[in-house]
Amino acid sequence: MNTLATALLSALPLMAGWAVHVWWLRARLHTARRDPLTGLRTRDGFTCRATALLKDPRAVVVLADVDRFKQINDTHGHAAGDALLKATADRLAHHVGASGVVGRLGGDEFAAVVIDDHGTAGDLLAVLHGVLARPVDGQDPAVHTTVSLGWVRAVDFPGDDLSGLLRRADEAMYAAKQARAGLRRAGLGRLFATVTGRRSGRTGARTAAPVVGVAA
Questions:
Q1: pLDDT digits over 153-192, tens only?
Q2: What are the DSSP E strand ranges found in 57-197?
Q3: Residue 211: which of 159, 162, 156, 163 has the closest Cα?
């Protein structure tokens, strides 16, 4: 056996070990970027994919917040609350599709980036709002609630990065929640003032009134 063949054979165990190590690292990274309850991407995983999608001029950023979630937990128990979050995540992921991304930012707050192929994001989200209000399969029919949605077209604010667009979507979502409108689009008027682009109790501070509007 020549020297090259001998060297290759001796290196095989090392190469195999390294391949296993790389696979293990990738598996750990994948797990770290997935929410264990819903299977959605966590904030870091969502941010990575969403930032790439924002290069597409058709991108729409959506923020979703479950209404009266604490009441569901207090009345029906945490298992029912978890089932509601899982159902919300599954429905969001189904409507966003493979071309977009959905993430759980924490608690009962979700974010998504949708690629709006036909300029009908408002109609899609109006349908989604109705779907999200349905009772949870396999649970007491009382285990359901609405989900407030705020959204913004990235092209309307070309100077904003993902963080800025999420702030605008958050402001619109809060306006929808306050008005019990279900759905609001950022960029069509002025409504509720927030603190640093985030409503009271959230990280950040801005005193100017946010720009939000009705779905369209």
A1: 999 999 999 999 999 999 999 999 998 888 999 976 544 4
A2: 59-66, 101-106, 109-115, 147-153, 183-190
A3: 156
Active-site annotation, residues: 108
pLDDT at 93 over 90: yes
CA distances from 133 to 15, 42, 145, 147 (A): 52, 23, 5, 7
36, two tokens: 């264990």
SS3 34: strand
Helix (H) or strand (E) holding 213: strand 211-214
Query: Which backbone phi and psi does 147 adopt, to 5 degrees?
Result: -130, 125
pLDDT > 70? residue 14: no
